[in-house]
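Database export, one record per block. Field names are fixed; values are copied verbatim from the stored entry.
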Amino acid sequence: MLYRPAPGEGPTIDRAEMLRYLGYAGQSIDDALAERIESTAAELERTLAPRGVRRVFPIDATARDGDGMPCIHLVGSTVELDGADIFRHLKDARLCVVLACTLGMESERRLRALAGQRPLDATLLDAAASAAIEAAVRAMEREATRDAAACGMSANWRFSPGYGDCPLSAQGPIMAALNAGRLIGLTVTDDDLLLPSKSVTAVFGLFDGEVHAANDRPSCSICRLHGACPFRERDTTCYSAL
């Protein structure tokens, strides 16, 4: 399934989330800065068109990784998801939704053009773009969850490579399984980073009927930045207010 809203028809950028990316923690914002924040977000909403692709794969939870440890294999692909956290997340699911989404190279070009010329505008655009890709991924997640519900299935929350102990090296096989390079222009670097940078890959499980705690959000305890998180220092998290 492809996700391709036209420019101006994509999801709304959450202004509060944009402020979190800017490090906002209750500071006073004058009218001039508030106007620049709003105009940056509104301009991005009008002009950028996110692109995404998702597929559903059966899950084999009996697979073993190269060290003989349990891992999740997505049947019909080369994707093997290593790590205890992702294994717990998907082992009881019947199917796995795999998705990728990007804001495209236009956002990358804008960020690079502003970085050396207008640092404040570049910072505002970076925060708006981060909030925009999150909004697009949430829209894709809602579509997939709605389609699953029509089949009597429920979903847990999305999990991305780099969360917990799931390695970034899963990016390449996920990209190949989705044919994301050809379909949405998304690539992965030799360091397993996504390009364009405002891009996300994620997976989540589909369960027959209801699943216990299907709507639970991720815990900070599985994050690699646990104990040194700038969001927690400001009494927020990267995914919601505390």
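Remark 1: Residues 134 and 237 are 14 Å apart (CA to CA).
Remark 2: Residues 119-150 form the longest helix (32 residues).
End of record.
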